Amino acid sequence: MKTMEKPIPTDQHRALALLAWSGQDGMTEALLVHGHNVPVEVLVELVNAGLALVSVEKLARPLIEVARLTITDTGREAIR
């Protein structure tokens, strides 16, 4: 008999739904944190759990580093 996995917390589910909605390019950390009020700790938990990936992009002059998050296939499964 297969056991049910523990559901993810509401705040993580909301963040994953935003990432799923955003498409292949994901969303920047700044937009998630400041635009959608997702706590940084939630983003860290998602990345550590393998539900989201983070990449750092270098943009413009002066050089600015931007963190972008995307949802993983595991993350998509978690919100179904």
Description:
This protein has a 3-stranded antiparallel β-sheet with strand order 1-3-2. It has one domain: Arc Repressor Mutant, subunit A (Orthogonal Bundle), CATH 1.10.10. The protein is an alpha+beta fold and about 80 residues long. Helices cover about 45% and strands about 20% of the residues. It is elongated, with a radius of gyration of 14 Å. It contains 4 helices and 3 strands. β2 and β3 form a beta hairpin. It has helices at about 10-20, 30-35, 40-50, 75-80; strands spanning about 25-30, 50-60, 65-70. The longest helix is centred in the N-terminal third of the chain and has 13 residues, at about 10-20. The model has no long low-confidence stretch (mean pLDDT about 90).
Keywords:
80 residues, Arc Repressor Mutant, subunit A, three-stranded antiparallel sheet, 3 strands
Briefly say what this structure is.
The chain has four helices and three strands; from the N terminus they run αβααββα. It is α+β, with helices and mostly antiparallel strands and 80 residues long. A three-stranded antiparallel sheet has the order 1-3-2.
Order of strands, main sheet, comes to 1-3-2
Tell me, what's the shape? Answer: elongated
Count structural domains: 1
CATH architectural category: Orthogonal Bundle
CATH topology: Arc Repressor Mutant, subunit A
Task: Work out the helix count.
Answer: 4
What's the N-to-C terminus distance? 21 Å
Taking pLDDT < 50 over at least 5 consecutive residues as the criterion, the unreliable ranges are none
Mean pLDDT, rounded to whole units?
A: 92
Radius of gyration based on Cα positions = 14 Å
Largest sheet: 3 strands, antiparallel
Q: Per DSSP, what share of the residues sits in E-state strands of 2 or more residues?
A: 15-25%
